[in-house]
């Protein structure tokens, strides 16, 4: 599967995910929001029950203790009236009783309790300040529900247990209250089973079980739980989702548009080229440079090629301009230099007269970055700097001041500098004189006019004359016929490259081609003419 197919498949998957995840996410968020809100509401109920229970307990204790300092005759009218007054004013106490010798003698109602022969309540626990507590004690005078009994000295106060959870509840909420370590005190609201109430009181914080949502709080010796049926929460959740769902749809639509935009960018030529650079999908072909006087191969121009994962080759004119415009040409140049060292290193070390020319981008000429890159790449390879030529186009040297610095520095290090595609830019003597060059390459558009009688055919003679006047070596590009080679040789052109001699070749084929020219013409140094850098 090629890169574009992968992008298409990933786009389809990402689009589906982008369309569904926000909707599902918002539904999930709405559920979590409702659940959290419900637990917070239940926790507030549980907190209010604990507050109410503690306040009722403390008020009842204060009212009960207030009887102790009174110097009243037990069970006198004044005593009974005082107990009744305290019961009425406390807001919590229903009845009060006075015990003597362990038996109930009178209550806040009357003295008839003497006939009840009722013993003191059986206490569940005693507080630190001496208040005894019984969780379930019958009324002194009625048959109503049992109450909590608080004993202090000879007096007992009875408090309705519902007073401890006397809070306002919304429909569907149930609250239960227990005294820590001593059992259930009261419950109120929506009916729940005893097992549910006990389970709610045994936990703490947020609890969800058996279809119920529960929040439990324990504080000041009390534990309170607020409970609601989960079905009621689901109904609330459905209402909330009516608001969250459109938001999820809008987010999904936005993400889909973003995915499509990103995918479109990934499918663009620039994105394709960026991926190719990152994955190093480039190879180097070598076009032999032939010495016209002897027919020997004395070097090669390294030409970058883009080989796609499917094996197809992308033409340079389809990606090099984009690479130059985007700045990707710089890492591509680095790949070419590394490939030359890796693929032709042994051959270059074996024949010091052999060279390879590398095209240098305009930005590298302007900044001089290429000098450091080449130096680092050649370090430790035993390849001489003279064996690596650099070629710059006229367009790449438009900033003559910067170009002059870079070219001069390169020549000082031993690199020969060639001006590529000459004749397509300024192409004047003053321009050439301003640049420290060793060689000039005639563009193939002029070479192709040789022998055609075209009006532009005479231009090549002027280019050759101009190069000779500056003592530059001349390389003709795009030589395709014997007539063109003969004409160039007769006019003093030193080197040529083109399909007449060989097409751009992979490294192994170039090495074979190079060796075949040596075998045909000999390898003695007297037969090899290689330009020395810095002769211009």
Structurally, the number of domains stands at 2
- Overall 3D shape: rod-shaped
Rounded mean pLDDT is: 82
Q: Characterize the biggest β-sheet.
A: 8 strands, mixed, barrel
Domain EAL: 266-518
Main location: membrane
Keywords: c-di-GMP, Cell membrane, Hydrolase, Membrane, Transmembrane, Transmembrane helix
Membrane topology: Multi-pass membrane protein
Word description of this protein:
The chain is of the alpha/beta class and 536 residues long. It folds into 2 domains: 267 residues, no CATH class; 250 residues, EAL domain (TIM Barrel, Alpha-Beta Barrel). It is built from 15 helices and 20 strands. The strands form 3 sheets. It has an 8-stranded mixed beta barrel with strand order 12-13-15-16-17-18-19-20, surrounded by 5 helices. It has a 6-stranded antiparallel sheet with strand order 2-1-6-5-4-3, covered by helices on one side. Helix 1 packs antiparallel against helix 4 and helix 7 packs parallel to helix 9. The longest helix is centred in the N-terminal third of the chain and has 63 residues. It is rod-shaped. The two termini are 53 Å apart.
């Amino acid at each position: 599967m090629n890169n574009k197919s992968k992008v298409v498949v990933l786009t389809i998957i990402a689009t589906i995910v982008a369309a569904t995840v926000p909707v599902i996410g918002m539904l999930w968020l709405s559920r979590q929001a409702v659940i959290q809100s419900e637990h917070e509401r239940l926790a507030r109920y549980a907190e209010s029950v604990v507050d109410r229970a503690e306040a009722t307990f403390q008020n009842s204790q204060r009212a009960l203790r207030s009887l102790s300092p009174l110097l009243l005759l037990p069970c006198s009218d004044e005593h009974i009236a005082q107990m009744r007054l305290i019961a009425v004013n406390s807001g919590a106490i229903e009845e009060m009783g006075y015990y003597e010798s362990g038996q109930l003698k009178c209550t806040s109602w009357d003295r008839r309790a003497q006939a009840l022969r009722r013993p003191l309540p059986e206490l569940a626990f005693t507080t630190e300040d001496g208040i005894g507590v019984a969780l379930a004690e019958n009324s002194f005078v009625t048959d109503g529900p049992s109450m909590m009994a608080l004993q202090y000295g000879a007096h007992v106060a009875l408090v309705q247990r519902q007073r401890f959870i006397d809070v306002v509840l919304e429909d569907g909420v149930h609250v239960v209250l227990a005294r820590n370590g001593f059992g259930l005190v009261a419950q109120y609201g929506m009916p729940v089973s005893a097992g549910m109430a006990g389970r709610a009181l045994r936990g703490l914080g947020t609890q969800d079980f058996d279809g119920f949502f529960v929040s439990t709080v324990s504080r000041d010796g009390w534990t309170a739980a607020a409970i609601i049926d989960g079905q009621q929460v689901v109904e609330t959740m459905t209402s909330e989702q009516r608001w969250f769902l459109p938001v999820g749809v809008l987010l999904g639509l936005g993400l889909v548009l973003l995915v499509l935009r990103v995918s479109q960018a990934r499918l663009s030529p620039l994105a394709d080229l960026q991926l190719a650079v990152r994955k190093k999908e480039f190879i180097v072909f070598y076009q032999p440079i032939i010495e016209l006087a002897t027919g020997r191969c004395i070097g090669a121009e390294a030409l970058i090629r883009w080989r796609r994962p499917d094996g197809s080759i992308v033409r340079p004119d389809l990606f090099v301009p984009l690479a130059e415009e985007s700045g990707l040409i710089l890492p591509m140049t680095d790949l070419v230099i590394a490939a030359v060292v890796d693929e032709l290193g042994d051959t270059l070390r074996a024949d010091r007269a052999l060279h390879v020319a590398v095209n240098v981008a305009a930005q590298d000429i302007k900044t001089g970055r290429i000098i450091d890159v080449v130096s680092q790449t050649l370090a430790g390879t035993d390849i001489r700097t003279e064996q690596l030529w650099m070629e710059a186009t006229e367009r790449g040297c438009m900033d003559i001041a910067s170009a002059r610095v870079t070219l001069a520095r390169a020549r000082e290090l031993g690199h020969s500098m060639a001006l590529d595609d000459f004749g397509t830019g300024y192409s004047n003597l003053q321009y050439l004189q301003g640049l420290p060059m060793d060689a000039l390459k005639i563009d193939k558009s002029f070479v192709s006019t040789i022998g055609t009688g075209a009006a532009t055919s005479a231009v090549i003679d002027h280019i050759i004359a101009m190069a000779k006047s500056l003592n530059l070596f001349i390389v003709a590009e795009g030589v395709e016929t014997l007539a063109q080679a003969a004409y160039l040789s007769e006019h003093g052109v030193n080197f040529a490259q083109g399909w007449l001699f060989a097409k751009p070749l992979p490294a192994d084929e170039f090495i074979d081609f190079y060796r075949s020219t040596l075998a045909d013409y000999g390898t003695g140094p007297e037969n090899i003419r290689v330009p020395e850098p810095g002769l211009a």
